[in-house]
Design brief:
Radius of gyration: 31 Å
CATH topology of the largest domain: Na+/H+ antiporter like fold
Largest sheet: 6 strands, parallel
Distance between the termini: 84 Å
Structural class: alpha/beta
Strand order of the largest sheet: 3-2-1-4-5-6
Strand content: 5-15%
Length: 669
Amino acid sequence: MTDYSVLGNLLVIYAVSIAVVFLFHQFRLPSIAGFLVAGALIGPHGLNLISDIGTVQVLAEIGVVLLLFTIGIEFSLVQLASLRRLLLIAAPIQVGGVIAIAWLGGMLAGLPGPQAIFWGFLLSLSSTAIVLKALAASGESDSLHGRATIGILIFQDLAVVPMILLAPILASPSEGALSSVLLTLGKSVVVVGGIVAAAWYAVPKLLEHIVRSRSRELFLLTIIVMCLGIAWLTSLGGLSLALGAFIAGLVISESEYSHQAIAEVLPFRDSFNSLFFVSIGILMDWRILLQYPAVVTGLLLVVLLVKFVSGAGAVLAVSIPPRSAVMTGIALAQVGEFSFILAQVGQENRLLSGSPYQIFLAVSVCSMIITPFLMQLSPHLARRVEALQRVRHWFPRRTTAHVLETEGRHLRIKDHVIIVGYGLNGRNLARVLGETEVPYIALDLDGDTVRREAQHGLPLYYGDATNPNVLRHVKIEEARVLVVAISDPFMARRTVQVARGLNPKIHIVVRTRYLRELEELHQVGADDVVPEEFETSIEIFALVLRTYNMPQEFVMRKAEQVRREGYALLRRSELPELAHHLRGGTLSDVEVETCRIEEDSPAAGKTLAQLALRPRTGTSIIAWTRSGITESNPSSKTKLLPGDIVVLLGTRDQIRRAMGLILSREGES
């Protein structure tokens, strides 16, 4: 008879998860914590509703694999190269610092040296799944602290391999053990290198043939096979499945099919990823909290503190500002999912067993549950640290802000534009300003970019725009415009706030990724906010209207109207437009548009009777504006002059024909 126990387990997991996560959502608590609590409820140490934990763990591992795969797709080799300072300096400091402190603490607690080092291995790893999900939910993956956190997490995932290989040596040291580990590690690198090289050559060509078939199902299956296949082959070389999946995603990220690939995989990732968090909750014996409450609580606080200090200190060492360092340290403060895999290796080698193993699980799961809450509070804590730093000068100047360019301590410039962030948007703006001879100064926190661009004579400086001294250095008091073109929402808000305090008259333009950030940016002092989501939709409908041969002026005016109405709706500071009222009321079948009479317009100098819009198109002119004065129901003797604005009422097709008569010379024939 067919065994449907797996289906029953999945139904229990998802049903309980829905109830718990919904309850958490009502109290505005993170969903990740809800999944962990759901796992604890249905696990063997809770209500014991799950009969086959092994199957759940396998499905959870698939979730981690898909998570790392999508991370790899969203990354690129260029981005990975930009994180080299974090990968080569900050990350080793963070991992090595935790191991050293754990070894010292373990020795003081009476643990044997090998076991103390192994505890350092376990605690040095952070949760890639939880942190990346939290960063993505808050839109901070591309922020400065987000990139720093991701860079260190990638290094930690790589460090799992040598840690697993070193575990047997710690358990039973021998003379030939180290050489055996180095040999195995070398073979792993060669095997993985061969797999990656082959995939880099074969994957783009294979995807090209698959795409030609125009079959979405075939494309999806190919992507899944590539993800799981490369991950499995890489695991044969000694690396983890998850890290292999990251490499697979990195391979696909360099192709033009990466966006479609991630769109296809996302639903599967989210479904399986929830199983991972549930499986962690299932593993834990909650009775250990009652048996050793002081030990678990004390160790949890120590772990959070040590990991916070090591994470924040590591990024401070590579000149990340204190504000971002605090948020990075908090994001890395928990114990990671790969620590569970490493703990199982420790059990096999008798480095961890019995009560210590359950205490480790309790501390790890509690740290994971706390993490989403800590990350929500991290911006507030970062603000306090930044305020204290300005007063107390706790950190050296090079970590708060400084300028690497050496043209001179005092710039001679005024009525200029200050560009904060020299990414794609910042570079494009600088190029246009340079071509139009508008003076500008740019600031960025990527030292390599600053040095490279400064060699070409560009006015680009290294500096933290949230620091008032840096803004004073680039003459914020005498600047006309400040453009904030960075991805870090916290840093953008702080920059606007500081700049507005230093120069109340400056015009501030902010680029943001999401509409939800509009309100707060306007509240802290931004004059104009350009959300990428909104501008993309405007560009799309403008392109569509042009394909229907709509007049260019009509398309531009329509875009401006949508932009204006959208911003007013979000800011709730302006009354809706007349057209909005008409379309939403009884006259929903008609359109209301405005049209400006230009010098070369065929309507210029003609009366409304001569123009005869209503007989020719069915459109009525219901109002007109001249010199800022608006009058309704103009008479047929009203003569239209250049600069006048007429308000047209009619169906969409009638208005389109009327605007053709007003704007085009063809209307005179």
